[in-house]
UniProtKB/TrEMBL annotation:
Keywords linked to the UniProt accession: Membrane, Transmembrane, Transmembrane helix
Protein name: TerC family protein
Membrane topology field: Multi-pass membrane protein
Organism, as annotated: Tamlana crocina
Domain of life: Bacteria
Record-stated family: Belongs to the TerC family.
Entry's transmembrane regions: 12-35, 47-70, 82-104, 136-157, 169-190, 202-219, 239-257
Subcellular location field: Membrane
InterPro entries linked to this entry: Integral_membrane_TerC
Primary localisation category: membrane
Amino acid sequence: MIDFFLSSDAIMALLTLTFLEIILGIDNIVFISIIANKLPEHQQSKATKIGLILAMVQRVVLLFFVSFLVGLKEPFYTFNSSWLQIAISWQAVILFVGGLFLIYKSTSEIHEKVEHPNHDQNQLNQKKLNSLSQGLVQILIIDFIFSIDSILTAVGMTNGLHPNNNYTLVLMIIAVVISIIIMIAFANPIREFIKNHPSMQILGLAFLILIGFMLITEAAHLSHTKFFGNEVGAIPKGYLYFAIAFSLFIEFLNFRITKNTKKSQG
């Protein structure tokens, strides 16, 4: 196990996944803060921390559940024709549906943030809270909604890294725990950074589209899908890491150029 966690693939997956979990958690932090701010002042900090801890617990529980389903590799249905051959397993179904969900959710989120940036916040602001328990119920619902794409992202980033699913499960749990700890410790600075650089969140959502596409091709590969005799191959994780690293590098250059431009104008 130690050899796996010290391997370059595992380290890259852990760093990339932790970064994406933090980016995905920004909206979670924002919505938790909106709910917490409607409570008495002495309960707001407590509600925020409890909300993030509940988010971590939900993600870990869902990871165990999804990892169990992904581990069901035996085909339960086989289809053969002159142009298509496929052996469908529950693993392939989860990956395929998860990939479609990530692509749909990410595209919808990008559209929502560009066209109606305050739509969800305004809806939450309209709801009144009378007690901490009411706030925690709303936070639990919000956490569950955001846990779905978080878990699917984790599966997409780690699936196939090791034959033993328990190793990748531990890796996903570590990434989730680290990201939640960072969000608890630096919630306000992270929120301010994303507020000042909204392109980072759009970039994170764009990464999810890549991961969604990779999950779909992975599902086809694990189902031994053949189109006209040509089997669908797996996409190496290294391509995904390179695309994310390259995009972040370009975004970093953009930050530097913008900052230097403001200095020269000032």
